[in-house]
Amino acid sequence: MLAEIAALALVVGGFVPDLKAPATYHPRDRAVSNWRLESARNLDAPIATLARALTKDAVKLPRCVRLNNYWCIKSARWNGKIATDNEGHVAFASAREGALVAARLLRRYYMDLGRTSARAIVTRWAPAECGTIAARPRLARAGATRPDGLSTRGIGNTLRARYLAAKGKGGGSAKLSRAAAPRIALMRAPSIAPGLGESAKPLPAMTASPLVRLASLGAPNTLPSAIQRPQICSSEALRIRNYAAKITEGVADGPDADLKLFDATGLPTPALARVMANMAAVEIGPMKPDFALIEKVVEEQAAAWRRKIGGASSE
Hints:
The chain is mainly alpha-helical. It is 37% helix and 3% strand. Helix 6 packs across helix 8.
C-alpha cells in the first residue's frame, strides 16, 4: 500500500491526493479530476515513464486517457458518466466504469446488431469522417436566410418586387446598386400599332401534349449525385483497415472473420478481453490499459450476464 501511495504521489507531482474526493470534470482541461490516479493504477507502463508522461508531458497524451475512457466511447446514458467533452466523448468517473461500458457495448454490437467481425465493429465504433455528399442546394441570392423567409430582392425577384424591396419597411428610397441587381429577361413588348412598336414575330406553334399523372411516373433508376451514399475517402479507408487488423491480432484470421466474442448463450469468451485490449491500444496508443483491469471487468460483467440469462430462462 505504501508503494502505491508513493507512486501516486510521484505521478501527481509530489503530494498525496484525496483518494475519497468525488471525480469531477474540468471543461477547460478536458479532463476528469482523478485521471492521473486512474492512469497510475490502470495503465500498463513503467512507473517512471508513467510519471513523466502524466506530469511534464500530460498535454501530449491522448484525450481519452484524461477522460478515463480508454476506448473513446461516445456520449450516451452510461453508468459512471459524469460529463462529455465538446466532441461527444464520455468522461467517466473511473477507468473501471469506462471498461465496463466498453464490454457492454461490444456485446450489443455482437449479439444485437450482428456485427461479428472486426471490420463490422470498427465501421460503427469509429466510422469514417469524410465523404462526397454534396451540400444541399441553397439560395445564392442575398437575404435568402432571412428569418421571415423573404428575399431582400423581393418575392420571385420580379421587377416590381425588387422595387418594393428596395424601398424598405420605412418607405425610404434605399437604392439598389447596379451590381446587386442582376439582369433579368423581360417579356417582349407587344405591338401597339404597326410601325410604332417592335415588329411582331410569330410565336412557335403550341402542340397539345397528353396529360401525365405523377403517380404513374416510376422512380428514377439512379439517385442524383448530390444525394448518393457517401464514399469513404482513402485515408479513412486505410485507418479502418488498420484498426480492424489490430483488433484481430491473436483472435481471428482476418478483418471479416467472426471474432467469436460471445458464445451461443451470450456469455463472453476469452476473445472479448483480447479484443478490448487491442482496441484500447489503438484508441490511446502508445499507452494501453493493464490487462488485469480488462479481465476483472469482463469477469464482473460475465457474472451479471449469467444472472440475467439464468433469470430469463427460469421464467
